[in-house]
Amino acid sequence: MPPLPGAELVQTPVQLYRYLLRCCRQLPTPAMQKHYRHAIRQSFNSHSDEDNPERIQMIIQRALADAEWILDKYKKIK
To answer: Taking a C-beta distance cutoff of 8 angstroms, is the pair 43, 50 a contact?
Structure first.
């Protein structure tokens, strides 16, 4: 199950970026939120020159799976 509703609607890198930043709000502490926001920005910038549609979809799928895993991990710790 995706961390937030709308994960299935993510089709573009900008939509993914916004979705992941919204997911950060669910993290328990401000320090964690800041860390993951920074990681999302860095990843977005490092892949900004990607132009292969298949590769972009692969990155989007992986990022959504990673976001789900991270949020599940911190929900179990609480």
So the answer is: no
pLDDT score, position 42: 97
Reported as a single tens digit per residue, the pLDDT across 33-73 is 999 999 999 999 999 999 999 999 999 999 999 999 999 99
Residue 54 Cα to chain centre, angstroms: 18
Contact in structure between 20 and 67 (CB atoms under 8 Å): yes
Report if pTM > 0.90. no
The three-state (H, E, C) secondary structure of the chain, written as one string: CCCCCCHHHCCCHHHHHHHHHHHHCCCCCHHHHHHHHHHHHHHHHHCCCCCCHHHHHHHHHHHHHHHHHHHHHHHHHC
Closest CA to 60 of 26, 23, 27, 19: 19
